[in-house]
Amino acid sequence: MFKYRLERILDLREQELDKVKTKFQEAIGYVNQIQNKITQNKLDQTSTQKDMVTEKGLRSPQLYLNRLKHLKNQLEDLEQDLEKAKSELELVREELVQAQQKAEVLRKHKDKKKDEFEKAEQKKEENEMNELALIMKRHKEEQEKDD
Hints:
Layout: H1 7-52, E1 53-54, E2 57-58, H2 61-146
């Protein structure tokens, strides 16, 4: 029976890979969340412009300006957050690639060792069969000699 001597290390690498995958998914989710907030902010700006402007002009010019200023400041903050989130996502992506490579190296090593083990077992079995055939042949020759 094949037993891989680095199985515990492979398990640790697989666990690390799973953690990084989760971290990557969270980073993607955070980027998407910020992008949704940016979209909502832009919709709010458009909505504010439509709601505050009437046929006679602005309903409340000061409220209108304050609201737009607030939304634009919020948009700038969100865009900065988005850039930071994208940078973090890129770092996590690189971490994910490294974790995948480390796990893959051990998986390939394990497969190679398993193949070597199976070939050695097959050769051992062939040798045993050849030896058994040789014993049977000798036994048959001895029987023929005795007859």
